[in-house]
Amino acid sequence: MIIKYIAKCFIIIFSLLMVAYVINLTHLIFEPAERMGASSFWPVYHVTIILIFGYALWVNWMYNVTLESAWKNEWLSKIYIRTMLYVLLASVPVIFVHGLFVHAGVILMWGSDVDIELHVIKSNYWRKDFVYFAAPLFATVALFYFFPALRFFRDRPREVDLSKIDDLQFWKLSHKPDVFLKHLRKVISTEVVFDGTKVRIFDIVFILFENKVYFAILTNGEKCLIDFSKDSPEQWPLGKWFVKIKENVHINMLYVKYPVKNIKELHLENETNAVLFRDDRLVRKDLLFPGRRLEKNVKDFWII
């Protein structure tokens, strides 16, 4: 643990030094002598280190606020909305603040006579040197997004009294499919409803295309003919739960065991699995193996 902590501190310090080096030397990275020889270089360099550490903490905090916090608003709870907010809030304020620091000398020198448009907005910095700041900034934004474990700090886990919330509220907080399934089993009869022509969507585990017709495999192991097309999931109340994992197989993700540990081999939750794979007679195990081209559908399901 101590070695890992020391290694992390070393990487952070080294990264700060290198990023500050790039930001201050810009296009003179490989010919630094002239700029580093200036008397103002080292004070500015040290200030830059402090600034970029502050920027990194800001990006970290914006990740926690936008992507790790629970949002009650349904629109804001969508992952792609959160991601866009994260990128905007993590980068735009930093660019604005750094732009002010870069042009602080010019603003102070001109005082009340400063022309913001000429001396700041249209300065050569944005055309020539800004890219050397933007690249590390957006690299940090991407790093925390794709590797959140590398963040400096995380939000404290919220203490929730589970005894005071029902399964549906818990589902909205956790987004765990098994919690939602538990709620549905309480409010909906688990006895399969099939009158020979219609079947409840809740009762369908798999949809198969065989011999040019569609069949549904139900939670009790029965197989029945259904009217299905590629547009059907969009028209069903729970349609987004059905994911195409093979050219001829859709699976109801409501019954997939969570969390998915191996994208190449799905598992059904225990109760459904016990019925469908009893004695290996009812359903083929290969139905749970997504095709290579369609593995992406399973990954995309978790960001709906």
From TrEMBL:
The chain crosses the membrane at residues 9-30, 42-63, 84-110, 130-150. The keyword Transmembrane applies. Keywords: Membrane, Transmembrane, Transmembrane helix. This is Uncharacterized protein.
